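Good day; I would like, with your permission, to put a structural problem before you. I would ask you to consider whether the tokens describe a fold that such a sequence might reasonably adopt. The full record is reproduced below for your convenience:
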Amino acid sequence: MTLRWPTFKLDLGSSLALAFFLLSMLLTMLLTLAIDTTVSRQVKSEIGTNLAELAAQTTNHLDRSMFERYREVQLISQRTGLDGGPERLQQTRQTLNTLQQTYPYYAWIGLTDTQGQVKAATQGLLEGVDVSARPWFINANKGVYVGDVHEAKLLAKLLPNPTNDPKRFVDVAFPYRDASGAVAGVLGAHIAWQWATDIAQSIVAPVARERQVQVVIVGADGKVLLGPKPFEGQVAPVHNTASAEGRSDFGVATWPDGREYLVGYSASRGHMAYPGLGWRILVLQDLDEAYAPVKALRQQVLLGGVAIAALFSFLALVAARAITRPLLVLADEAQRIETGETVAIDPGEAVYAEVAALSSSLSSLLGSLQQKENDLKQLNATLEKRVGQRTTELLKAMATVRENEYRVRAIVESAQGAFVAMNFQGQISGWNSQSEKLLGWQRGEVMGHSLFDTLIPARFVKGWQDAFHNFLATEQAGFINQRMERLVLTARGEELPVEMSIALVNTDKLKFFSAFLYDISERKAVERMKSEFISTVSHELRTPLTGIYGSLSLLVSGMAGELPADVKPLIEMSHSSTERLIRLINDVLDVEKIESQSMQYHFRVLPLRPLVAQAVAATQAFADQYGVRLLLEEDPPGAPPTLVRADADRLVQVVVNLLSNAAKFSPTGGATVQVRIESHATGVRLSVRDHGIGIPDEFRSRVFERFAQADASDRRQKGGTGLGLSICKSIVEAHGGQIGFASTLGQGTTFQVDLPVASNEAA
């Protein structure tokens, strides 16, 4: 016996009621969810923004207050006659005591001599004590006038401490001068850290009456300077990139106590002359407490959504009944028409517009059925005629396509360049007569064959395949519509230099690359002749110039006797000009070798540091002309030697060139060029850093071009051929490395050479 489940067939009214009910529930819930999400996000943003605003206000108050102390100490240090005899020191001590009384956060203010001995101080504390080792005294003499938070040392036991908490100060110190303008010592002030605590509490106190918020001050090293005791000294777990850029923002973070906090933060940027200490001000509130209004709002929105859904469901039921009533009337009349009765379809007067339109359409349908039947007969009679017309039009269109195909083929055949078409997999699909003449293959010999197996030399196949694969993956290719010089194979297996331009056809029906190739072997021969000519002329010029340079060197050195005073400047000018001309010829020869690919390298595995030290020693005499010192930084103790596979002479040439440039563009007299060797994950980096004027922005893209020189008058006065960095780039790349630079106007330039490291086994 087979059991069958009873089936239920709902009428239209019930179906519409159920559909309206489900739809209203769905739309209401979606709307409720959207409102909840939008409003919750907005409320959360407002709460976080309020905390960020508190942080910004606290930061502003701290910076302005610190600026006042900075300015007070600076103004006092600019007074004349701070030191002197006992009477003058007594007046200075009274002034300092008065200043301390006007601003009680001054824990101590003192005046020292140039050796760091305290001559006068508030309440006489530390007078006669040597403070030359204290950071505030040292930094003031170096031009750093504000010190970060630190615990008291000498004053820890001298100042009253009712709370027994460690005393912490912020230092402000300026050198002061005597009547002659010479530095006579340092005026320093210790500001009690309670100053920052009181300012922070004054900002958040009105808010703290309603919300439990905490202020945290984070130092430049990321550690908490001020805040709840468990947090002090800990690293603040907030990724406050925005505050580092000087903006206020907020975020959520888990702090060392394991709780999540909503954090508003802002960065100290100083105020006017006060440069700031890199502090970041954070305002914390427990995340659950901060978002409690959001939770309450979400509950209200949810309850409201449920009520609205219930209301809409009831209205849907009423609407479904009203909709189906006239439809039932129409269904009854349609059944009567089906039985053959002549019935005028009339939905009644009280009906909505859609049912009236349906009734009118049914009436019109009944009246036009006969007419449609007659029209169908006439249509069948004319159908054959129309098919014939369409066939004729199609044949004409196909003829037009063939004509266009012949036209394109004629254009390709008449082109002066060799034409090669290929699909996206590299199979050749087009070949004109110029291709047969240029490359030697007949059309039937290459059609359908792979481009990589016929035209591309074996050593370049992988590069072409990678370019095609990249296009298939990204639909982007850098070789499209670019004029390129490449080598291709002829039918005889010879390599032929050609200039090539590739176009892309990528439509729904046509997908291929089209390339035109032009023979440039004669142009390459002319270029080789030019390079040989330059090389010959340079060699012929260098021989007599070497003799002239040697003779002038003897005259300049005085080995041929003392030169007359009016002759010596002319000889020295000729000597430097000849030396510069020889360098230019050597650079031109190197460039010619690089262009002709005849530069020879003798690679060996060598330790890098001795080569760099050799270059530093060889260039120091040149740097002495500018009063510049070349400094090679030492390796860390116990560090193994760094090995590279290099041509020693060429690598020394690169370092000498970089050092010479750095010396020329460093400030004359006492400047230092720093040379550093450091290993990293992928190799070793050699850095040459100067402290010159830097490289102008508009010139940076042309630094490594041949004959490139900046337009600044200072750079033109330094001389040079503009070839050195181009040669360095070619040599470094021949070693499998890269050369680059980083420059800041007014602060200097650092050139970086990255080389692969050779293994000990290779050595």
Remarks:
- Confidence is low (pLDDT under 50) at residues 712-717.
- The radius of gyration is 44 Å.
- The first helix runs from residue 12 to 77.
- DSSP finds 18 helices and 22 strands in the chain.
